[in-house]
Amino acid sequence: MQSTPSEDHLISPKSSEAATEASRIDCNIDQIRQERPETVSGMAAGVKGKEGGIPSQAEESLNSFTTPMKQVTSSTDGASSCRRYPGTVIMESCIENSVRIVKGEIHNVLSLMRLNRRYNHGARFHREVPAAAESPLVRGLKALHEELGPYTNLQDMDTMAWLRPFLDVIESAETSGPITGGALSSLSKFLNYGFIHKGSPRAAESVCRICRIVTRCRFERTDHSGDEVVLVRILQVLLDCLRSPAGTLLSDQNVWDMVQSCFDIGKQQRLSELLQKTAEHMLMQVVLTVFARFSQLQASGELSQDVVGSRPLRSSLGSENDANGSANDQEADGSLGDDEESLGLAADVAPPYGMPCMFKILEFLCQLTHAGDSSDPVGSEQTRMLGLSLVNVVLETGGRQLSACPALVGVIQHDLSRNLLQNSRTNNLQILSLTLRVVFNMFNSVREHMKVQLEVFFNSIHLAESSSYETREMALESLVEFCKEPQLMVDIYTNYDCDVQCTNLFEDMCKYLSKNTFPLSGSLNALNQLSLEGLLAIVRSLAEACDGGNMHEQEEDEKTDEGSDQELAVPSTAEKLRHQKQHKKRLAMAAEQFNRNPKKSFEFLQSTGFLPDTLDAESLCHFLSPCGLPGVLRRKPVPL
Predict the structure, then answer these.
(1) Radius of gyration (Cα) for the chain, nearest Å?
(2) Residue 583 CB: number of other CB atoms within 10 A?
(3) Which of 5, 55, 391, 464 could form an S-S bond across to 9 if both were Cys, CB 3.0 to 4.6 Å?
(4) Contact partners, residue 624, CB within 8 Å, separation at least 6
(5) With contact defined as beta carbons under 8 Å apart, do 424 and 475 qualify?
(6) What pLDDT does 127 receive?
């Protein structure tokens, strides 16, 4: 049997050298043990820790600073540690290093400006250049760097004071795209790091100023791709400003300018498709952030605010632009537009944004869904799809709280409902799908205000016959989704089939689904399966309603037994609905008799009680009026 090599042969020359060095260390330890026993014990502990794979205390002390680190304490002000808001996470270390971070951004912007001949003075290396010969933008950044010297925290300094040099660079029309982009990146970093919050000095004025200047940013054109990078940074700064801790201090006009800026960038056909889609995505994020404040406004009682008498918001920055966005020479100077009257700050800061801004945005989105101009069908369809998608965001974000806003409900009832009805006749399946989704979200959000509109939608879209199988499939899918909603079938029967002012919507729905359930050929197709699924959903909904109704009746019986001293019992809801339904049937029969032969129908009308035994002109006029016979006469007036 072959023997294994001894351990002496496994030691390499380097290993033997290491062993010799270790023996020397042992000799040194023995020598030091006699002089300083306490030091040797610490070293021995360190060696023991190394042998066990655990770092020793002496080793840790060598790898750390000799001065103790400052302990971070939690803060309760606007710059608290680990504050979270949509899109950002603020760390306490950023607040502590805020002055250093601002100084670093000053150096970054100055470095970009030195690359430009306009701000690069080569003579400064040969002679002293007077300060007056430098650009005011460069002087402002250098002065800010000197002013930040005695400060250790930006919260002790005026916010507008350290923001102004960066805003001057962005506002200047003489700066190039890279310089403007660098200043915009600095602003985005300040907002994401939480340097501006509600507790900052002049926070409201600062965020309003940022929005005003960024939405009117102007810069010199360099190259097409570089200009698009600057536009992307403009969009990002606007979104960061809205989502920052101080974003709720923005005014209605500021938020409206944000919406218009994002839309104006997205609709410019000369820009790349990537930038257009980015602008649309940013616009969706802005709308989502704005309408996510419903809970805050509801808590403060601002949802019922009347927006009719409020100050009107300024129109779009580029609303007069053509389809290519070439108005006001935007293509020549890379600007988003300008408004000289509004560049200055108002004496008093406007109140935070709320209902006026939401009303204006929803009204604008409803205008986008209008199927109007047919000269550019592709652009019109893209605009409608964008509008429908944004309206869906509003309805999904607002939810049931939209019902508490009379101004927003009015826009949905009139402008949006009209445009949805027009879009339902389109051949574009994507537009039809978005339209059906908006109708469904309207039902979930403001159903109590949409009784007439939903009846029109069901009869004109869901229950309408179409020659296209794809269109019928989408309509059936939406109808099945409605059928699966809890208590919907009961609500439809109660509010429509038992109301003489409305059609028999529940009955028509069941007939339509039953008709499409049976296949014309031998096998079931997709439409038959959807119709059967809808019928099963209706039956399931009615069964659940019956189970809940039986429990409710038992509770009512118990209450009636307890209060047996009452002689007349109040009729139940089922009895009321049965009476209303019978009355509506008799009224429909009377209308049918009257429309068939008005002169010979008086006897039937008198026998059913719709006309008195002694006929007179007043009773006949009351019967023919909308109050007496509403919604059932389908025939033109016939002379008696």
Answers:
(1) 38
(2) 12
(3) 5
(4) 633
(5) no
(6) 62
